[in-house]
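Revision sheet: structure tokens.
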Amino acid sequence: MNHLGDHLLIELYDCDTNLINDVIKIEELLLEAVKISGATNLNSTFHKFSPHGVSGVVVISESHFSVHTWPEYGYCALDIFTCGNEIKVIWRWNTLKRNLARAIFQ
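Predicted:
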């Protein structure tokens, strides 16, 4: 079978609970991750839950970047899928991790 894309499932623990409960900051971080990866952003939506938690997705031409946070547990889950060979998310993971982790882990 041909390589169809790259899929990353990322779990982050001991995150800054205030930061991962901030829908604006989470949106900024995910959009920055898309930009760094070289993917083409098509649309995005983010939602702040009550009393806590954020979910969001960025639809890209190549597939998606999504995030779900559980501030009460200091936990953040990312799901990144890119189709084809143009976007090398796995190879750029160190850059993404540095930018996301720097902001999430205070």
